[in-house]
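Methods — Computational structure assignment.
A single polypeptide chain was analysed. Its primary sequence is given first, followed by the predicted tertiary structure written as structure tokens.
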Amino acid sequence: MRLNTSSFTAEQTLTRDNVPVNVDTVVYWRVADPRKAVIDVADYNAAVMGAAQTALRDIIGRTNMNEVLSDRATLDKAMTDTLDTQTEPWGIVVQSVQMRDIKIPDALQDAMSRVAQADREGAARKLLGSSEVAVAEQFAAAGRVYMDNPMALHLRGMNMLYEVMKSGGTATVIVPSAAVESMNFGTIAGITAASADTSLSAKPPVK
């Protein structure tokens, strides 16, 4: 009447969508009524194993492959209930049925991996597109602000030029004349002088 642990494998079992799978399963069961188990059944061990394999094939045959791979807990419970109901007249109580391993064909596994990779790449492209749209909307909003306030555009341009000169990476700053005229920076000579002043101020004092 102690708890028994029995393992069995259902090979080449077809799912509902005709995918062959190999399922490694373990059954936890015990004898609840010794009289029924000994008198009513010739070999209750063989009877439990046969019923377990039949229940497993029946459950998998009524389930799609995706559900077999993703919803294993539900299948375990359904198989436990089915097997316990079948073995009750034999004085056997099935406490738990657990699928330990599910193997699918290598070719199908490779195809599923490529499908998952394609899904991830598609999601990444969609996210990138959404980011591009958000950035474009921000630039459009900034453009409307600059259009309504030319002084803000001039200050932005001056700030950008100041950041370039402040970095000190180059001694010469080339600015298109059209940009100079649109931002009212004055002459090219004024910009060069401003750049020189910035470079001098950035140098440490000579002791």
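Note: The beta strands are 4-14, 20-31, 92-103.
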